[in-house]
């Protein structure tokens, strides 16, 4: 069973996927106007902070393809901002 470390705690890949999905499902309102609601963008830095890891760790996970399938699934709905 693959385990990853986040914020000093070990979790399974399934737990990690669940946590990442909850990050993308959470919508933070930046501004509300009469015409629309503007939500905070999702970023790789924001994801790293949410998971309690460094951006370097996130980059390493990408290199070893841990997050590849999840990114493919999310890429239809998410536009990364760097």
Task: Explain the overall architecture.
- This protein is of the alpha+beta class.
- It has one domain (3-74).
- Helix content is 45%, strand content 18%.
- The chain has helices spanning 13-25, 44-51, 55-63, 68-74, and strands at 3-6, 9-12, 29-32, 37-39.
- The longest helix is centred in the first third of the chain and has 13 residues, at 13-25.
- The radius of gyration is 14 Å and the shape is elongated.
- 2% of the residues are buried.
> What structural class should be given to the helix and strand makeup?
alpha+beta
- Taken together, the total number of domains comes to 1
Widest sheet, order of strands: 1-2
So what's the overall shape? elongated
Strand content: 15-25%
Topology order in helix (H) and strand (E) letters: EEHEEHHH
**Overall pLDDT score:** 75
The percentage helix is 40-55%
Number of strands: 4
């Amino acid at each position: 069973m693959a385990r990853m470390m986040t914020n000093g705690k070990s979790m399974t890949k399934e737990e990690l996927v669940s946590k990442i999905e909850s990050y993308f499902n959470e919508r933070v309102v930046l501004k509300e106007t009469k015409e629309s609601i503007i939500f905070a963008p999702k970023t790789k830095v924001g994801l790293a902070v949410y998971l309690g890891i460094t951006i370097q760790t996130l980059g390493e996970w990408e290199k070893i393809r841990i997050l590849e399938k999840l990114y493919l699934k999310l890429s239809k709905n998410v536009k990364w901002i760097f």
